Amino acid sequence: MKQDDRVLYEQLKKLLEENSNDPKKAFAEPVYKGGKTHDKNGRPLSPVSTIKIDDSAKVKSGFLINDDRAFVNNGDIVRTDVYKFIGEGRPKSNIRYKYVPIYAGQLHRLKKLDDVNFGFAFSLYKNDYFVAVFENKEVKGYFNNYPGKSRIVYTEHTSPSPGNKYIDTGKALVIRRHDVSVLGDNYEWS
Questions:
Q1: What are the tens digits of pLDDT across the range 131-163?
Q2: Residue 174: beta bridge partners?
Q3: For residue 153, which of 11, 34, 119, 145 is within the disulfide window of CB 3.0 to 4.6 Å?
Q4: How far apart are CA 24 and CA 10, in angstroms?
Q5: Residue 46 CA to its chain's centroid (Å)
């Protein structure tokens, strides 16, 4: 990041500009910070091999650390919080559930969904057993991931590979998390 090492930033920027912003041309030869190949004792220095790029246009989620000098992504999803529609009448667009993925990087600053029409129902952690009831079918499986847009990635009970199915829960009438005992019995979480 340019605020961490302004000298190197300006050097790399100049090399790119001199080579029509073509990184293959600009960095065809090894680059040494400040052009110095040896330290003050005559020992050879290593060339620059990697840099961090702050590209906020491509970053989906994360936060700044070290007095806003470094950016880290949120990491893996720890759990997904599920909120159920509790408002009066029919929900808008028939949405009955909302999902909030909770990333590892967010655990220190969590806030509940602020929506008067939705109340907290339960959290889904990886491998939690769930049941989704639709008008014409019932889907059961082990929660794997929440990629967004009301879709859940899950594993069927008899499947040999994890996370091999998708389900669009946007039109589910009911979604329940079940606990599974050591004997294999399952019952709705409350």
A1: 999 989 999 999 988 888 888 889 987 777 766
A2: 133
A3: 145
A4: 18
A5: 34
